[in-house]
């Protein structure tokens, strides 16, 4: 990030501010699977907080943390533009998972855990 700041001729803090604001930028290593839960109001009203708490309990980590085996990182995210499909989880910044109930989250974790071995 210091290189980018120098290249763009701006103070390094400006680059760090952008990188730390957006959940798609990682400023420290993340797990093999980064799960970002949208907790904005539309998702929250459709169960995002329940989904987030379920993931925290199942993985044994909080937002911004990674499991000890390095498999999963859990992040809290802003609106992903899929309010009609809430609650939404974004996996590895690429795959949007919609209507994520605790049951669907359990199936996802089971599938991902099996594929990581």
Q: What is the secondary structure topology, with strand pairs?
A:
Blueprint: H1 2-8, H2 12-21, E1 33-38, H3 41-45, H4 48-59, E2 65-66, E3 72-77, E4 89-91, E5 95-97, H5 102-115
Parallel strand pairs: 1-3
Antiparallel strand pairs: 1-4, 2-3, 4-5
Helix content: 40-55%
Order of helices and strands: HHEHHEEEEH
Q: Average the pLDDT over all residues and give the rounded result.
A: 93
Structural class by SSE content: alpha+beta
Number of helices: 5
- Proportion of residues in β-strands: 15-25%
Uncertain runs are none
Strands of the widest sheet, in order across it, are 2-3-1-4-5
Gross geometry? globular
Number of strands: 5
Rg, rounded, reads 16 Å
What profile does the largest beta sheet have? 5 strands, mixed
Explain this structure to me?
The protein contains 5 helices and 5 strands; from the N terminus they run H-H-E-H-H-E-E-E-E-H. With 117 residues, the chain is α+β, with helices and mostly antiparallel strands. A 5-stranded mixed sheet has the order 2-3-1-4-5, with helices on one face. The protein is globular.
Features:
alpha+beta; 5-stranded mixed β-sheet; 17% strand; globular
Concise summary:
This protein is an alpha+beta fold. 41% of the residues lie in helices and 17% in strands.
């Amino acid at each position: 990030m210091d290189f980018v700041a120098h290249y763009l001729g701006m103070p390094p803090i400006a680059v760090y501010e952008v990188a730390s604001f957006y959940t798609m930028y990682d400023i420290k290593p993340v797990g093999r699977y980064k799960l970002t839960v949208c907790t904005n109001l539309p998702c929250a009203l459709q169960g995002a907080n329940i989904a987030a708490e379920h993931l925290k309990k199942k993985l044994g980590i909080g937002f911004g943390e990674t499991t000890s085996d390095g498999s999963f990182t859990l992040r809290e995210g802003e609106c992903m533009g899929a309010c009609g499909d809430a609650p939404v989880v974004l996996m590895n910044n690429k795959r949007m998972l919609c209507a994520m109930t605790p049951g669907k989250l359990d199936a996802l974790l089971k599938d991902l855990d099996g594929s990581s071995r």
